[in-house]
């Protein structure tokens, strides 16, 4: 890999390096918020391995006064998929549906239970995702891939680089896909089941059954599907309230009906008694 410096080095006084601002050519007026689709592996053009050098004080983390040279990957729009510069910066490294660039490695593959989609973080081959040594040297608010290397002239000129090592860092590409997207993706990502979390995966790699299962199938079968759980938590109380309300309404209505029937029966009995008395009095009068 040919490492080229695109800007002069900058010494960062704070203990954590701030993210490099993309050049103005990277779409200063970007307005697109929809994620780009990347259904086939993107191949970066030759000459895209350019890095922006800077230096970071590591004393906060190592306890010794030293300077670590950090090279951040450049954000030249020509090194990214078509339309990349038109997307707002916060979404530029997210693709859906998507696959990792050619030769890159899938990291932390997992299924998001609520959205029913799968996600992975793409790092260039040889880089680690987030867990590289001294990852705290760079902003923890973005997803980074990094690795330490030696023998690279960083141009810092201070001669105090930590053991002569240089930290190379680039943004992770975040890809997501749904089960319905797999027919359009090449290569086809593995099917994630039983709450699998796959640390790393490369196209063509076969994942043995149960290798990364977080929940055995026998245990998972004991639990109801998410839709059924929502029904029990939300639907059943509503149905129960409606049933109770219906019962109360029916009882009240039935009670009122019975009272009306009793009053009607009493009035009928009173009328019948009155008619008998009148008839009897009329009979007595005629017999006289």
TrEMBL record:
Biased composition (Low complexity): 1-25
Renumbered residue ranges of the record's region Disordered: 1-27
UniProt KW Membrane keyword: yes
Keywords: Membrane, Transmembrane, Transmembrane helix
Transmembrane segments: 230-252
Protein name, entry field: Uncharacterized protein
